[in-house]
Amino acid sequence: MAPRFGMVIDTRKCVGCMDCVVACQTENDVPLGYCRDWIATEVRGEFPSLTMEIRSERCNHCDNPPCVTCCPTGASHVEDFGRTVQVTANKCIGCKACIAACPYGARYVHPDGYVDKCTFCAHRVKDGKDPACVSVCPTHCMYFGDLDDPKSAVSALLRTRKSHTLLPEAGTRPRVFYLT
Amino acid sequence: MLETTTTRHNPLIDPVLHAWSWEIPLYLFVGGVVAGMMVLAGLAMLRLARGEDSRTFFSMQTPLLAFMLLNAGMGALFLDLTHRLYVWRIYTTFQVTSPMSWGSWVLIIVYGVLLLSAAIRLPDAWPWLGRRVPQLGQLSDAITGSPGRMNLLGWTNIVLGVGLGIYTGILLNTMVARPLWNSAILGPLFLFSGLSAGAATVHLASVFLGQRPAPQGMISGAIAAMIQPMGKAPPEKKTVDALIRADVAFLVIELVLIALLLANLVTSSESHAVAAALIINGPYALSFWGIIVALGVLTPIVLQALELSHRIPHTIVPALLVLVGGYTLRWVMVNAGQTSQLVQAGL
């Protein structure tokens, strides 16, 4: 069966060092001033009872991706390999409908005109490697694998730990999970 | 308390989404005006098919003006694209789930129907062209001389006009990430706003060059063809009154739809209520209440009602205000809508 890739990030281990951000920019030639992944810090509660969650965020490669359904040319599509959401640059007309449709702000207009975003490092994954962000994480808080394979590390973590996704109420069924 | 900070800093995305600038509001506005003009032109074509003489007014020159406006709107749409050399890609596929794909194909059909509707008027309105391309005259006679064909063209204009008007709202409506747009009222609201703006445009066009004969030259004839009435006579007063009466009805319906939109959003989820606050008492409140509601809807209703009851003379002021309000409605909805986002559950 074809894999369905997803990512699991342990917020108890993430320190927000931004190594993942720098690794992504280097690996994917992300233009200066742009980012495909970023660090969000969320503080909840009232002082002194505060909790803080640090998250490495990116495109959620949703199972129900609104960016794909609204794309007028099919440039935004779900790739057969790994069921990830990808953009074909020479099909993209730069209408920005996908940018408006994404609840996560994961996409941006590349200076060359097409819309760009995280690819889950498809080029590395095809070679059997982890995405660049996962491979450099100094606290090993990021896990990547097949969500449909019960033996994968990501499936095991989701079975044994509490987790959440971002804006589940949007109905996009994100595939980046945060362990709490 | 819930406080989120992010290191993300992408242009057009942060701190709030502003991917669409003036081009999309202009396109949505012009699309609405064209939709309204197609409906009005279609209704007048039906009258013509029944044998009533509406040839002296907007049945014929309206499609030509609408055709020119549609080109301007599509030009704005093109300017909004950031990967322009690949624009042809939109017409190499049909994406059934994408409103923009539907809209692109509908625009092609609208383009053809408007071109045909405009072409049958050209030989009389632009004599320079009529003399050089006699086939246009034959085409015009073949359609205007047959009530059946005129009827068909009229209904095609009406159906496509309604479709185009609703589509301009649906385009925004389908994006779950932008709560301000998540109301099905947006389709009918943009349709009726487009109808009133279409009536206002036809009214304005009928005022200019009203009583002059068709210029014979190439350039002057081309310009005049878009805006002057057919034949020698200026528009009859009863036709102008009918247009104003229709405009008042469209504006009243628009007002009701605006109220329904606000009620719909305010009584929905927290995300929708927060989004509605952007236009009710937030940064877009002045444009919304001041320009759209007060200047763009209420004032034209009052002025046109006074004109119809002969208390004040006819002027173009209400028509101008309707157009300003119509564009501002799209500008506010597009910009405030982009700013709106799903609210994360706090503690």
Order of helices and strands of chain A: EHEEHEEHEEHHEHEE
Strand order of the largest sheet of chain A: 8-1-10-9
CATH superfamily of chain B: Formate dehydrogenase/DMSO reductase domain
- In DSSP terms (H or I, runs of 4 or more residues), the helix count of chain A works out at 6
CATH topology of the domain at 5-63 and 118-179 in chain A: Alpha-Beta Plaits
- Quote the beta fraction of chain A: 25-35%
How many domains make up the coordinates of chain B? 1
Low-confidence stretches of chain B: none
**Relative strand content of chain B:** under 5%
Q: N-to-C terminal Cα separation of chain B, in Å? A: 6 Å
Per DSSP, the total helix count of chain B is 13
CATH class group of the domain at 5-63 and 118-179 in chain A: Alpha Beta
Low-confidence stretches of chain A: none
Q: Keyphrases for this structure?
A:
heterodimer, A: 180 residues, alpha+beta, Alpha-Beta Plaits, four-stranded mixed β-sheet, two-stranded antiparallel sheet, 20% helix, globular, B: 347 residues, mainly alpha, Formate dehydrogenase/DMSO reductase fold, 69% helix, 1% strand
Q: Can you tell me about this structure?
A:
The complex is a heterodimer of chains A (180) and B (347). Chain A is 20% helix and 25% strand. The longest helix of chain A has 9 residues. The mean pLDDT of chain A is 96. In chain A, the strands form 4 sheets. In chain A, strands 8-1-10-9 form a 4-stranded mixed sheet. Chain A has a two-stranded antiparallel sheet with strand order 2-3. In chain A, strands 4-5 form a two-stranded antiparallel sheet. In chain A, strand 6 and strand 7 form a beta hairpin. The two termini of chain A are 30 Å apart. Chain A has a domain of 121 residues: Alpha-Beta Plaits, CATH 3.30.70.20. With 180 residues, chain A is α+β, with helices and mostly antiparallel strands. With 347 residues, chain B is mainly α. Chain B has one domain: Formate dehydrogenase/DMSO reductase domain (Formate dehydrogenase/DMSO reductase fold, Up-down Bundle). The radius of gyration of chain B is 22 Å and the shape is globular. Chain B starts with a strand and ends in an 8-residue tail after the last helix. Classes of the chains: A alpha+beta (180), B mainly alpha (347). At the A-B interface, strand 2, helix 2, helix 3 and strand 6 of A face strand 1 and helix 3 of B.
